């Protein structure tokens, strides 16, 4: 029997998950919900099933076996809480929220119900990343270094609003912070600094080109951020990120460990030292994180990236912002996670 799956939020990243779910013969895509009704109707026409404007109507009428949540950051909270209250396992795209109050509230319900959940940190399920974790598991880790440089601002209208998207540190660089946790263990404390080095006010006559933006009205977020992390195991970590327009994307990740230097690019990895090697992620690796969720629901087993993992990775981002509020003083993760 096929797993009945519903989708809440079908813009942006949802397209990847819709296409990947379509490839599974054991998945029945039964319903789609979006605040833009036409998007939900288009999905129903393309993939089969019904369109909804209310996620509670979808839950109650379709009674799905699982749901995939791909809403913008500010919309998280009630969607997950209502699913947990009905015992519906859910997959949720990162970040799980824009504030710890929401994330901790949902985490409490998920824990109380014992619900199967998965957060979309896709790098964790790629084979090269798993291999790196194995290599690092027996070594003292000294440094985790990451950067995330974008050549402009993503186009969704919520992106430049701090309360809606959380800025680059919450919405995007969370992938780097989560990868650090996966490879080097829990972060104990974070120190941060932010800056806005550019005037984002659109000049007279500015017409946005397709793709990333160079200007935006009401720009509220930092355009440049730097963090220092103290890991519980003793390692230090750094993250620098920026969306100041320049020529090209540049995303990088390195780990310095006793006897080993690891370089990660996307989900590909290479290492040099007392061991030498390289692994490439296959083209289908972004699907694995969703497929693992489907398989776990059908088997009645826990997932590798439950909601609690998303909460802790969000806490690292928000500890960085709280450190900025405190003039750069370190902020302990334990202050934020309930």
* Helix and strand sequence: EHEHEHEHEHEHEHHHEEEEEEEHHE
Outline type = globular
Number of helices, counting only DSSP H or I runs of 4 residues or more? 11
Number of strands: 15
Q: Any idea of the CATH class of the largest domain?
A: Alpha Beta
Uncertain regions: pLDDT < 50 for 5+ in a row? none
Characterize the quaternary organization of these chains: single chain
Architecture of the largest domain, CATH level 2? 2-Layer Sandwich
What can be said about the biggest beta sheet?
A: 9 strands, mixed
Structural class: alpha/beta
Helix content: 25-40%
Domain count: 2
Enter the CATH topology name of the largest domain.
Dihydrodipicolinate Reductase, domain 2
Strand percentage: 15-25%
What strand order characterises the main sheet? 14-13-12-11-7-10-9-8-15
What name goes with the CATH superfamily of the largest domain? Dihydrodipicolinate Reductase, domain 2
Detailed description of the structure:
There is one protein chain. With 338 residues, the chain is α/β, with parallel strands linked by helices. It folds into two domains: 139 residues, 3-Layer(aba) Sandwich (Rossmann fold); 181 residues, Dihydrodipicolinate Reductase, domain 2, CATH 3.30.360. Helices cover 33% and strands 25% of the residues. Helix 5 runs antiparallel to helix 11. The model has no long low-confidence stretch (mean pLDDT 97).
């Amino acid at each position: 029997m096929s797993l009945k799956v519903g989708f809440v939020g079908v813009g942006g990243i949802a397209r990847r998950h819709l296409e990947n779910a379509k490839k599974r013969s054991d998945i029945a895509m039964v319903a789609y919900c979006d605040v833009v009704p036409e998007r939900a109707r288009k999905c129903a026409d393309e993939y089969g099933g019904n369109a909804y404007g209310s996620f509670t109507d979808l839950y109650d009428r379709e009674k799905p076996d699982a749901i995939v949540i791909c809403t913008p950051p500010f919309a998280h909270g009630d969607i997950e809480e209502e699913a947990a209250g009905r015992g519906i396992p859910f997959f949720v795209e990162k970040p799980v929220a824009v504030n710890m109050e929401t994330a901790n509230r949902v985490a409490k319900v998920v824990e109380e119900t014992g619900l199967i959940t998965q957060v979309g940190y896709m790098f964790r399920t790629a084979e090269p990343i798993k291999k790196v974790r194995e290599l690092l598991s027996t070594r003292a880790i000294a440094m985790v270094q990451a950067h995330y440089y974008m050549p402009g601002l993503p186009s969704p209208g919520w992106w430049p609003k701090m309360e809606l998207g959380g800025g680059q540190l919450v919405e995007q660089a969370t992938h780097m912070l989560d990868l650090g946790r996966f490879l080097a263990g829990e972060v104990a404390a974070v120190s941060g600094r932010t800056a806005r080095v550019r005037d984002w006010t659109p000049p007279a006559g500015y017409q946005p080109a397709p793709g990333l933006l160079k200007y935006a009205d009401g720009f509220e977020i930092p355009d440049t951020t730097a963090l220092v992390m103290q890991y519980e195991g003793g390692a230090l970590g750094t993250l620098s990120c920026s969306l100041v327009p320049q020529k090209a994307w540049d995303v990088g990740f390195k780990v310095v460990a006793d006897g080993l230097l690891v370089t990660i690019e996307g989900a590909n990895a290479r290492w040099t030292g007392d061991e030498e090697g390289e692994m490439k992620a296959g083209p289908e690796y972004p699907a694995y994180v969703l497929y693992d969720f489907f398989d776990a629901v059908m088997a009645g087993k826990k997932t590798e990236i439950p909601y609690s993992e998303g909460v802790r990775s969000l806490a690292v981002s928000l500890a960085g912002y709280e450190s900025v509020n405190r003039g750069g003083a370190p902020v302990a993760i334990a202050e934020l996670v309930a």
